[in-house]
User: Fold GlxA family transcriptional regulator from Kribbella deserti.
Amino acid sequence: MTRVVFVLAPKLHLLDLAGPAQVFATGRDFGLGYELTYLAETPEVPTAQGVPVVASTEWPELSRDDLVVVPGWRSPKLSAEAPFGEAFANRLRAHHAAGGSVASVCSGADALGRCGLLDGRRYTTHHDLTDELAARYPKATIVRDVLYVEDDRVITSAGIASGIDLALHLVAVSHGAEAAAKVAREMVVYARRNGDEQQASAMLRHRGHLCDLAHRVQDVIDRRYADRLLLSDLATIAGVSERTLTRIFTAATGLTPLRYQQLLRLERAEHLIGHGDTVEAAARAVGFEDARMLRRLRAR
Assistant:
């Protein structure tokens, strides 16, 4: 079970909340084990769109596997006043310090910045706010014109609908491409939007083609990326020769089957390392015999 806690500020943008909430709620319907909680400093939160939202005022007990998300609020210009009091800020800091993940949509990055969670990290936000946040948090590195960025369990996304992309990315990393694709299809969402090139889910990024053979082989690799997969075995599954498989797969995805598997392993390893595993433990978990190959891939 993974608890997803949405921390709501006044003048909340509904889609900043509803987009990622729908992703995780749909994942819950598919048995992915998400439990959603809505939290605010007051029992009723006014929204920018005029529909009030009811929320709890008591923080639940959280573990390192849980995610705290701060959706954005209406902010043509950021206020000098903090969106939350010190008690909520302390909770955000403590959750990350304990090994948990925190995320933001749009101006929600300002709340993370006020907690010091952006310092020394890369992050993004809505394009209208990048200059202001860059000036406000000089110890952090703003990444402009991308959909989302993940850095040491701090995941930030751009404005409004990009929260859906962020949430689908997190589902793909935790549960695989098939689960994320099911959620996206159920939501009638085009799932191929990239975030930051180095952080976006490889499982989604290379699924935008229309080649059935490549999709079938990707399904196998997605499920068994930690196993030793021989090209001959994949070719047998696809019903073609090794040479034909490599040609068709590369034309569809831009990668060879081996390179695609390596990307999946690398992405999962980065997720594990970000949650406190050593490089050696992460390498073993994703199927490398030792950490040398993982270190070489990370260095690239």
